[in-house]
Amino acid sequence: MGFFNFLMSKVFFKHLAIAVVIAVALLWLTLKALDVYTHHGEALTVPDFTGVKYYDLEKNDVTDKYGFLVIDSVYDDHLQKGTIVLQDPPAGSKVKQGRKIYVTVVATQPEMIPMPNLIDLSLRQALNELKANGLKLEKMEYVENFAKNAVLAQRFEGDTIIPGMEIQKGSAIELVLGKGLDGEKIEVPFLIGKTEAEVIDILNSSSFNVGFLKYFDERDKLHSRVFNQQPAGSTNYRVDYGSYVDLWFRSDLDFNFDSLIIAYGSDTLRIDSLMVEPIKVED
Fold it and tell me: Which of 163, 183, 203 is the last residue of a domain?
C-alpha cells in the first residue's frame, strides 16, 4: 500500500511535474538546435553562375553558402575555358544554405572520341551515326558504284580515317558514296520557309551538299528561314547526286513567308507548275 500511497502523494506529483518540464525543455532545445543546424525556414536565392570560372568560385564567398560539383564538361572554341555553362538548380531557385550546385563547365581540352565505322552503311545510317558520336558531315562525294547511297569511304581533312582512330569531337567528316550505275538524277527538295537546321537535315538526307549560305538579316537559328534557293525545288528538275544547293535567308520577323510559299504553290508547297520565277538575289 505504501507504493500506491506514494503515487498519490504531493512529492510524486512534484517530481513528475519537474520531469515533464525538463523533458519539454530538452525537446524544445533539440528542435531549436536542429533549426539552427539545418537553417530551417531560411532560403537563399541561387545566383547565376554561368560565365563564371569554376576555380574563381572560391575567391568569392559563395562556397560558404553552396557546395559545387562538376558533373559534365563541354568543349567550345567560342567560350572561355573553365567557365560554367549550365547549373542545377538554375539561377533564381530558392534553396537552403549548403545546397549542392551541379555545374557543367567548358573543357580546357577538346574531347577525343574513336572514329566510328561508317563503311557499308546507308547514307541515313551514317548520318545518324555521325550525330550520335558528336561528329558533323563536311561534304558528300558520289562515285559510280552499284551500291547506291552506301558509304564506300570515310575521310577527315582529305585523308582516309580508319575506324577507331582518335578524333576530336565535333570534327567534320567527308563521305564517299555510290550513286549507282544507271545515271539516275534526283529532284531538288523545296526548302522555302525552312530554318538552317531543317534544310541541312533535308539536303543531307536527300543526297545533296549544302552550298553557300547568305543572310540578309542577322543570323538567327530560330527566325532565319530560306528566302531563296538555287537550284529551285521542283519535281520536274533533276540534278546529280551530291549537287550543291545555295541558300539565302531572311528573318521571319521581317518577312512574310506565308505569302512567299503561297506564291510558289498554295496546295503542294512545290513549284512543279511554277507560278512565279525563282527570286533573283544579289550576292
Answer: 183
Specify if 6 maps to a domain. no
* Spatial distance between the Cα atoms of 260 and 276, rounded to a whole number of angstroms: 10
For residue 110, say if its preceding peptide bond is cis, omega within 30 degrees of 0.
Answer: no
Residues 85-138 have pLDDT tens digits of 999 999 999 998 889 999 999 988 888 999 999 999 999 999 999 999 999 999
C-alpha cell at position 70? 562538376
> What DSSP character marks residue 83?
B
Residue 191 to residue 260: CA distance in whole angstroms? 12
Which structural domain, as residue segments, surrounds residue 122?
111-183
* Angle CA 157–158–164, to nearest 5: 70
How many separate domains does the chain show?
A: 3
pLDDT single digits (tens) 172-229: 999 999 999 999 999 999 999 999 999 999 999 999 999 999 999 989 989 999 999 9
Grid cell for residue 233: 525545288
Q: Which residues pair with 210 in a beta bridge?
A: 245
List, as one string, the DSSP characters of 155-207.
EETTEE--TT-EEETT-EEEEEEE-BSS---EEEPP-TT-BHHHHHHHHHHTT
Same domain, 191 and 248: yes
pLDDT of residue 269: 43
Task: Report the first-to-last Cα separation within the chain, whole angstroms.
Answer: 113
Report H helices in the chain: 2-7, 10-38, 123-132, 196-205, 257-265
